[in-house]
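Exam review. A common question shows you a sequence with its structure tokens and asks you to describe the fold in words. Practice with the pair below. Do the first one on your own.
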Amino acid sequence: MTLRHRADAVQRASAYLHPGRLLTSTEPCAVTTILGSCVSVCLFDEERGAGGINHYLLPHRTAGAAAASARFGGPAIRLLVDALVAHGCRKADLRAKVFGGACVIDAFHESDTPIGTQNARLALELLAAEGIDVVARDLGGARGRKLVFQTDDGAARVAVL
């Protein structure tokens, strides 16, 4: 198949992001992930054309888990920020978009604070503490999401599942 692009179209690599992982890129890349109660923090520096995304499962580390695992909110956000700074981004230039945090299992609707809500709250608190502006969010609800995030310009498309 031959793809035809407009002259101003950007050629992007594509990648799928699994839970508990993160991806950063200084090249244009469209990253797809599926979120339920998990949260993805998407950071981008539009001026440098760099960005990244994480996909964490739980807000806090569980007993016996590695301290710096991207499966947990705190380390996942810190690792993402650090990786982008290592790519030459300035933290002051980073912008965030945050997605996920749904309560997709009926039994969890009755708990005091569902995991999805905890995940979402943690992302917003940690980004505020880092001084990173959240320019878009799609959080909570009862249904999962398919997210496609473009690392170079921060564009994001969300489909409710």
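Now try the second one, then compare your answer with the model answer below.
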Amino acid sequence: MAAASSDDRAQFPFWRRNAAALSAGNVLQTLGFSTAYPFLPLVVQELGVHRNPETWVGLIVGRLFTLRFLLQPIWGGVADHYGHKGMVLRAGLGMGLGYALVALSPTLGWFMSAMLIVALC
């Protein structure tokens, strides 16, 4: 058993560092966007909604998390079949594109579409 663990260490020398970096990146990304949620009603008001912006924010965030909940098993199966590295790259690039579109959204429709792109990734 000890020979297998030293073999693993020789074959995959950087896995602990990579796992720590991915975990830290995921936590920072989640914290960063989660701290923006209290300001979403202000963003929605800036996009032209003046009546019940909190309802729109609830719909946006609710759809975001519902879609993520439904897609997690699908993306997990794809990752198991095709490899985890490609899925991490897909998710990172897709979420980066989605968040860039969120920042550049001129209307509420574009904002909601960009948030759905983020949820799909």
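Model answer, second protein: The mean pLDDT is 84. The chain is about 85% helix and 0% strand. Full marks require stating both points clearly.
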